Amino acid sequence: MSSGHHLNTPTSIPQGRLFSFGAIADVQYADFDNRQNFQKTKWRYYRNSINLLSEAILFWNKRDQRVSFVLQLGDIVDGVNRRTKASQSALNETVAVLDKLSAPCYHTVGNHDLYNFTRTELAHSRLFSLTPDKSLQQDTNCSQIGINGADLWWETNRFYYSFEPAPGFKFIALDCYDISMLGHGGHHNADFIKAEKFLKSNRPLGEDDLNSPEGMYGLERRFVKYNGAVGKKQLQWLQHELRGAAENGQRVVVFGHIPLFAGSADHQAICWNYADVLGVMHQFDCIVMYLCGHDHPGGFSTDSHGIHHYTFPGVIESLPGSNAFGTFDVYSDRMELEGMGDVPSKVVHF
Asked: Pick the residue with more confidence: 264 or 10?
């Protein structure tokens, strides 16, 4: 752990299981025939992915130790829907499944979400309007969850926020596409132009396909169009949130769509300015874990400051008969992950 802002020891956390939460990534539903991924290494099962989401929700609803909430780590629908003019119907179908979850669901924005919708459209969609409204009647260990910053979605299309599910814990959602060429609705948008300029300045000259890492090596390969960055204002907000958590003796879980640590994902799937984000996170000793999706094979690693980085495997590439979701049971000194299908079980201590 770093020698920066240390976590104050909580004084009121009870013994035993404190609460539980679920996590799932890259459902990427579409009413579309199966096909291989871009690397031709795995198949994507578009129609089946919504069935796997339904199975996960059924599991969470029936689990003896009920979940207090679920983290949906981005890419709930696939970009192919845009080409088939099925974006809204695909989102409607997935939201109808999410409606069956008997706990709140907290969302992050992924690249495929932004292939289908602008940021404004997402901010006004039922996907994000669902988040603040659910109650937590299932788990008496948790107080009602409220979101810090949810009121700004409609006005500013800001998709980063925090919530506190139980005494001594804070969860922070990052918008990894704060700076991005995606979701701006046109090439003349100022944010699009800014992101395009940044991306091209970090890529080899003459390579027209901005989604291709051709000619780049190691972490340079992250400079592709389907990734993005966390903006300066969001970094300042993150620092403020983490400082408050450290001062209040809270443990923190940060989550977003794009991996931040090269040990937990392919270099091609890392956030453009991962070093800036980690630079803020490493100032504080209160962070337990960063959860994300995006890199479908998944991965796990612990960085030099003791933060556990868990990249969840993508549901979209789970074989029929398998799945890819997990449930964390949270204790005062550890989190126990019960993995299903492609998600391995794990215990992380803090």
From this structure: 264
